[in-house]
Amino acid sequence: MSQLFNVLALLLVASFFLVERSSASPSSRDNDEFDVKESIEIIINHPLNKERPASYLLGPPLTEEEIVLTLKPVLETRDVSHFDGLIQLYKVTNGLKTLEAEADGHPLKDIWLIPGYYLLSVHEVVETLSIMMRTSGVWIPSWLPLFASRTGDFVVFDTENGHIHEILTKESLRWEVAPNLQAFIHGIAKQLRDGRILLNENGLYDVIITDSQKHEIYEDSILDAPFVSPNARNTFNIEIVVHEENVGVPNLDFNCTNMPRVCQNIRNAIASGKTRSLQRITDKNQIKKNRQAACGKVTCTAPNNSCDEYPFASTSQGGAGATTMCVPLSENNSQGGQLAGFYRKNNVKDKDWFNMRSP
Ligand SMILES: *[C@@H]1O[C@H](CO)[C@@H](O)[C@H](O)[C@H]1NC(C)=O
Ligand SMILES: *[C@@H]1O[C@H](CO)[C@@H](O)[C@H](O)[C@H]1NC(C)=O
Ligand SMILES: CC(=O)N[C@H]1CO[C@H](CO)[C@@H](O)[C@@H]1O
């Protein structure tokens, strides 16, 4: 508890530092210290969100008592009064009614609140955590899933230290995007307000960053942008243990029992000439680019379905032209777990080759 307090004190210092930095910049207005409510308002009222009715699909706010009560089982003995950002967020809105919105004909990207992600309601946070704990194999109990993409990607709140991580469960990758929730939402609102975010050809957000020669560089994901968290750009493999021995080019055999449609999609892809020879990549930007190129324009109409792709987005062979299929959500964790297990067991690292043997 006192340890948590220390961490919290550190975070507080860190967030002040962030605010300090941004208000020092000459182009920003004086009152840069907007709170979570103001940040959310900036995000939903931004012209880029006009086509995405996030605001009217957002659920009504909850009271602090309701938030604490719902989260209590997952926070266990932790003192929830320390999680200011979480409380502030859900006091603004209880997230998006995803399934209702989709049933109402809105594609997933219409209900994004932040680039690539929609906000889960507090009940969905608890439910999704329990599903991920049962099925994912790489999920850590202290990760509260706050934002989800429905393709196995999440933005999570770590109850150990309040840090915000982006998690790609299928690829077993995570990285820290902000030291706390306030800084995360603030960072996104600020970049939207300052016009450093635009829509790319896939209808997704890009971030404009200027290099030392003032050339514009485009990042494909705002969540990676250094301004969200200047000190936190580390990418980690989850649970990938490094062994010394070289096992050659390993063969991947999927167990299709729990994911018949994923396997059917792979068979379709191979039948149409896609390669079985794959090279793993761990560059998160490239993985997300591949996923968007493959699945960005696919709308899965059946409830609880999400777009799956072969070759996988986490290989050099993935991306535009990949064979896609809408698969039940229940199949995504099965695939993610099997891939992660395969990479770990066979020590398949970045740029290593492997062979998709079956199906
Ligand atoms: C495949 O998965 C199912 C369900 O988890 C399991 O019952 C079965 O034993 C597995 N088959 C093989 C060959 O591992
Ligand atoms: C979709 O998933 C939710 C939550 O897991 C479940 O309650 C609902 O019944 C599912 N709907 C369909 C159509 O499968
Ligand atoms: C079993 C199940 O439904 N797994 C997950 C598939 O992925 C989505 C989001 O990426 C989760 O919401 C599901 O829980």
From TrEMBL:
Question: Which superkingdom does the taxonomy of this entry point to?
Answer: Eukaryota
Q: Which InterPro entries match?
A: DNase_NucA_NucB
**Where does the Deoxyribonuclease NucA/NucB domain start and stop, copy by copy?**
268-356
State one Pfam family annotation. Answer: DNase_NucA_NucB
- Signal sequence, start to end: 1-24
Its keywords, alphabetically, are: Signal
> What's this protein's name?
Deoxyribonuclease NucA/NucB domain-containing protein
Report the source organism: Sinanodonta woodiana
